[in-house]
Amino acid sequence: MASESHHKENLHNLQLEDEGQHRNPSEVKMSQIVLPCHANHCGELSIGQLLKWMDCTACLSAERHAGCPCVTASVDDIYFEHTIGVGQVVNIKAKVNRAFNSSMEVGIEVSCEDLYSGRHWRVCQAFATFVAKRTDANKVQLRQVVPCTHQEQVEHSLAAERRRMRLIHHDIIQDLLNNKTFQRKNHDEDEALPTERTRVESVELVLPPHANHQVNTFGGQIMAWMENVATIAASRLCNAHPTLRAIDMFHFRGPSQVGDRLVLKAIVNNTFKNSMEVGVCAEAYHRDEPLRHINSAFMTFEVLDEKGRPCPLPPIKPEPQEGQRRYQEALARKKIRLDRKYIISCKQTEVPLSVPWDTSNQIYLSYNNVSALKMLAAKNNWDLCSKKNNVSTILHMSFEMEIPAQRAFILLSDISRRHEWDQHYILCKLLLRVDEDDFIYQVVTPSVSKGGQYQDFILLASRRPPCDSGDPYVIALRSVALPSHPPTEEFHRGEVVCAGFTIYEVSKSVSKISYYNQASPEVLPYISTDIAGLSSSFYSIFCACRQYLLDNIIPSRFIGLK
């Protein structure tokens, strides 16, 4: 029952959040007042300088947890919401969200403070991956992070999903580029500006002040140099001072040391209506050695008018071959960038239902599906709440039973069999097997009113086995829009906000199974009579679920072999 006692310990620790007694042991804070030497000619903090401070703070947090030197491996997308002026204070907080084998995710929050008005506002949020590096030959095995507050529990759980996205980010872009329907034609060459005029190349000598205590060039310093040449390239296109709005996810491919010459190259890859993408490459060499690829990044700039509104930008004429490749890749990254921001970056309550599913956004829909359920399961207070004129109802039911957690996961994740125990599922048809963990189903349910029209739902089912010991099995459901299956007159198309199961292993033979459903208007009628005490249909359904699991605890292929 070790898992059960550990679970109770976590529940006890979660109470500390309200009492304000807990501080994450890996948390590091930095506060810097913005001086003229940190700012550009507009009196705004240079993003390059901000990136250096962010990387330094995150590295100190990673090393506090690891107990050994750490290096920056990658940084997820960063969206800069506000600029920071001279005289204002930058507050940066970093803490380790989750540790894997030798790598860890560090969450970074940046806010700004006006010392005269006392006003605070958020500037950006970032997630960086750091790798622990020992000076000896011993292999690094990081200790696990134990979440002790509600927010830490959520971030710890979501870190596994973010890691999953990082690992396949490159493949998503390549799949989109290989899709012939995505290829776009260039603008009219008479109107377009040649990209060659935006090309920038600069070299930097890495000196001791640019390096960390391991004599490696600070990742933040490299990012600052890259931001500098990217800004120059963007300025050459628009003949104005551009504002950096976003940096796409990027990975450091290798280290750079003191004494290296760092060659930085930048060029505008493409322009859109009110923004442009600038590609930057950093390469290093030492004496007569060949160039080593250190990093590539893609930055999105805007040009603002006097009222702070984005100005329209001219189209560009890419160079043949390599320029054309960069032009098309920029279009793919823009689509992925919008998908990520549309589906992931907004608050859970703002994510639209039935987002159209396609191969380019499948990983982000899957992330949103799983993360929404994990956030729902991490809630402390369960009640009936009202926002404006809408009632938000969350159904939560839990039970323990004698069945191995993995077996319960296999049975409950097979949505095509749900009609065997759930009377609300008349039909469940598999429409698309996305991959090993994600499936799209059409579900048909009866009408609540007598003689009413049947409802159907197009559901994305995402299942996840535990990432580490102590993690639950997860089965998440949410509505998506599938172009091949539009609404029909035969059914009323319903939507599911968030639903699914978490399954904890209490012991080798006992599982704790929890069901959650954040009811939408189409789902609410099915549970409203239960809430009012006029029905016990959901109780009956979960009794049937328990019996279904007991009846199938032994796989059918083994029955009769005893």
TrEMBL record:
<dbReference type="GO" id="GO:0005829">
    <property type="term" value="C:cytosol"/>
</dbReference>
<keyword id="KW-0276">Fatty acid metabolism</keyword>
<feature type="domain" description="HotDog ACOT-type">
    <location>
        <begin position="196"/>
        <end position="307"/>
    </location>
</feature>
<dbReference type="InterPro" id="IPR006683">
    <property type="entry name" value="Thioestr_dom"/>
</dbReference>
<dbReference type="InterPro" id="IPR023393">
    <property type="entry name" value="START-like_dom_sf"/>
</dbReference>
<keyword id="KW-0963">Cytoplasm</keyword>
<keyword id="KW-0719">Serine esterase</keyword>
<dbReference type="InterPro" id="IPR029069">
    <property type="entry name" value="HotDog_dom_sf"/>
</dbReference>
<keyword id="KW-0677">Repeat</keyword>
<dbReference type="GO" id="GO:0006631">
    <property type="term" value="P:fatty acid metabolic process"/>
</dbReference>
<dbReference type="InterPro" id="IPR033120">
    <property type="entry name" value="HOTDOG_ACOT"/>
</dbReference>
<comment type="pathway">
    <text>Lipid metabolism; fatty acid metabolism.</text>
</comment>
<dbReference type="GO" id="GO:0006637">
    <property type="term" value="P:acyl-CoA metabolic process"/>
</dbReference>
<dbReference type="GO" id="GO:0052689">
    <property type="term" value="F:carboxylic ester hydrolase activity"/>
</dbReference>
<protein>
    <recommendedName>
        <fullName>Acyl-CoA thioesterase 11b</fullName>
    </recommendedName>
</protein>
<dbReference type="InterPro" id="IPR002913">
    <property type="entry name" value="START_lipid-bd_dom"/>
</dbReference>
<keyword id="KW-0443">Lipid metabolism</keyword>
<feature type="region of interest" description="Disordered">
    <location>
        <begin position="1"/>
        <end position="23"/>
    </location>
</feature>
<feature type="domain" description="START">
    <location>
        <begin position="357"/>
        <end position="532"/>
    </location>
</feature>
<dbReference type="Pfam" id="PF03061">
    <property type="entry name" value="4HBT"/>
</dbReference>
<keyword id="KW-0378">Hydrolase</keyword>
<dbReference type="InterPro" id="IPR040170">
    <property type="entry name" value="Cytosol_ACT"/>
</dbReference>
<dbReference type="GO" id="GO:0008289">
    <property type="term" value="F:lipid binding"/>
</dbReference>
<dbReference type="GO" id="GO:0052816">
    <property type="term" value="F:long-chain fatty acyl-CoA hydrolase activity"/>
</dbReference>
<feature type="compositionally biased region" description="Basic and acidic residues">
    <location>
        <begin position="1"/>
        <end position="11"/>
    </location>
</feature>
<feature type="domain" description="HotDog ACOT-type">
    <location>
        <begin position="24"/>
        <end position="136"/>
    </location>
</feature>
<dbReference type="Pfam" id="PF01852">
    <property type="entry name" value="START"/>
</dbReference>
